[in-house]
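Q: What changes when zinc ion is included in the input?
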Amino acid sequence: MLLRQEYVKLQKKLAETEKRCTLLAAQANKESSSESFISRLLAIVADLYEQEQYSDLKIKVGDRHISAHKFVLAARSDSWSLANLSSTKELDLSDANPEVTMTMLRWIYTDELEFREDDVFLTELMKLANRFQLQLLRERCEKGVMSLVNVRNCIRFYQTAEELNASTLMNYCAEIIASHWDDLRKEDFSSMSAQLLYKMIKSKTEYPLHKAIKVEREDVVFLYLIEMDSQLPGKLNEADHNGDLALDLALSRRLESIATTLVSHKADVDMVDKNGWSLLHKGIQRGNCLLQRAAGAGNEAAALFLASNGAHVNHRNKWGETPLHTACRHGLANLTAELLQQGANPNLQTEEALPLPKEAASLTSLADNIYLQTPLHMAIAYNHPDVVSVILEQKANALHATNNLQIIPDFSLKDSRDQTVLGLALWSGMHTIAAQLLGSGASINDTMSDGQTLLHMAIQRQDSKSALFLLEHQADINVRTRDGETALQLAIRNQLPLVVDAICTRGADMSVPDEKGNPPLWLALANSLEDIASTLVRHGCDATCWGPGPGGCLQTLLHRAIDENNEPTACFLIRSGCDVNSPRQPGTNGEGEEEARDGQTPLHLAASWGLEETVQCLLEFGANVNAQDAEGRTPIHVAISSQHGVIIQLLVSHPDIHLNVRDRQGLTPFACAMTFKNNKSAEAILKRESGAAEQVDNKGRNFLHVAVQNSDIESVLFLISVHANVNSRVQDASKLTPLHLAVQAGSEMIVRNLLLAGAKVNELTKHRQTALHLAAQQDLPTICSVLLENGVDFAAVDENGNNALHLAVMHGRLNNIRVLLTECTVDAEAFNLRGQSPLHILGQYGKENAAAIFDLFLECMPEYPLDKPDADGSTVLLLAYMKGNANLCRAIVRSGARLGVNNNQGVNIFNYQVATKQLLFRLLDMLSKEPPWCDGSYCYECTAKFGVTTRKHHCRHCGRLLCHKCSTKEIPIIKFDLNKPVRVCNICFDVLTLGGVS
Ligand SMILES: [Zn+2]
Ligand SMILES: [Zn+2]
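A: The predicted holo structure follows.
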């Protein structure tokens, strides 16, 4: 462009230079009159422009009349020669543009030309120059125009140039046209004549026919056909360098008239391109672009044109697609009908997936990378229900028509994804079409290569709508998948409640277990699908459902739910009316271990696991609260053993519970609570059943008795804490109270706690003994103290009239005696029913420590009457002597007791029959001072009655009362400071003379 402008500028400069050269030449040759004359003449002529002077001609320019001069015009052009204009007065140029005309006139007079960047103006000027044979002006115009030529106006200038025979401009334009040939549009050629255009096309392209069609000039096409007549139809089927066919170009531009012309000249309607696309394919294909959907009808028309002009309707391209596929893919219903009418085969399947444009891929993933599609697959995949209807109608018509060549669509054909058209329609959500397909004979129960039915697939896709559709249309619900799953199991697994409902409504077997043995109801519950579970139950599904359990035993779903601690499931089953009372059972051949025989009801199991909600639910729904398992245990036994407080509370407060049921070990629930030291439950049980703690064992002992006897302080405290009765007696012959037992057991701690808890301190045994009596008999000084502190009646006597001191002495309990003698005012001289004081008891029962006890007595009671006889008249000395208790005798004698006192049978220590008198001798020998004299009516030795003749005498050594005969000897007793002979008895005489060792 710049170059061209540069060129034009140079041209202009050249013209000016030439003119100046002429002027200079004129001036330089002043000598030459002729040269000077020329330049003067040119100046005069220039001055005459538009001047009246010398004017001999008027020129009409527009509405104006310009004054002109014939000789000037004649000098410029032959057409204005003086001869031609001789009779002319006026020249009419009003038909031309006035401005252009004025420019021309000015140039004629002055040789001056004003260029304007206006191609129309210049063209006009050029035409005018041509008209009046102004060669110089035209040449200058041509050069001026060339600067303005471009792609858009080059054809117009070419035409003008040709018209004006302006070869320079024409060649220049032709060059531009040639270099921009492919950019030229049909509008650019619209004004060009057919002849000229054809000529130009022929000179510029190898394929004139294609170009003629591209610029939509049927007249040019005709010229081509006429010229090529001899080479037809071959030339019509040539492809251009783009591989395009003339007929295809015509069809693609919807130039039906040209297409018709081509076909009538035998263009081949079945030509195929390098990809195997036939014209028909391509005709249909042009509906491809979504943006051109609206234009689809036009393309359909093109294809209809081909179809009805005998194109092969079953041609397949390299992907195996027939025109019918393409028509179906693009939703061309009319074309589909026409193709079928023309014998298109609706059962051909594509061989390879079509490379899809991006917008189509996003349109439907169903179409992506699939092959083996029938046209009907295509129509459905691309969502063209009207096309589907056409095919279905065709099938109906073909079936009813006789003698029909149309091929009946096969609905069982599957695409590369194993989809039938019915499946495809369903997955595309085209249920109306699916219904139509079924109505037209599609099979609802076809299985895929993996054995699945459409129903299975719908469920697996979680496509409830399709599944329900299939069920409504009576799809077979009993077909299993290759894995053996039923439709019901699948529907549950895919969590489709409506589908489950529909399948159940159709009467599916709700008991078929899956491969793991889980029945449908369990599948639903295990996945927390309560709505589905409810549906199953509503349809009568068995909520109990016996099945295999641990070790091959039989169990219900409830057992299983409880075992898995799945409370929601357990409660659901209970509310659904399952068996709430049966324990597990052995299998049919006795399988199962402990579980099969433990006899535990669901309530036992739930109590054992601590499943509170489940227990509550079981109770609400009538589970037997008193059921006993194989061990005889009730649920509350189990709950207590497992220490589940809330459950214990629930069970205890149940109106029907029996709290006295014993298990095999004889334990009541209370006993159980004791065993597990469960205060709360024991208390709860006692509150409900006040006698629960009083239940006794086979020995008549209640829990407190046993605990006390076992010195089980913990249990005692436990029972005290739950307010067990601390005064109830053992129900046996002895009828002891807990306090008695505690004393017997010797537990100070228990005694104290029982007393603190309100045990009565003075309760008596059947032998009328108090706890103190009992304590006194054992070596329990502290307990004696405790009892005394707590106000025990120390004076109480038992059935033998013994007080506690009697018994303490009888059993030689020195420590007890000290407590009794020092911490209370027990009567130490009291006689029991046998007429014995504690000291007599000591004499009779005393053991090794008897002397110590005796000493203790005298220590505490120095004035104790040592010689007081018992009911038999025996003194403690006589009793001790008769028992042979030497130590005690010595202690008594040392304390100054009388020696020879007789009892009621006349027995005393002197006459008591013993093997040896050695003890007597020793006692006498040890006398250190004169003992108190005895008194009486008879001689202690010979029992002679004293009277007037028989006088009373005393042995001064032993103090006995004797007759004269029995105390004849006299001897001084040095140890008594009796230095003169005094009366002694025979024994004393021997002792005093022989010593204590005789
Ligand atoms: Zn005598
Ligand atoms: Zn004597």
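Observations recorded in class: The pocket of zinc ion (ligand 2) is lined by residues 955, 957-958, 960, 984-985, 987-988 (CB under 6 Å).
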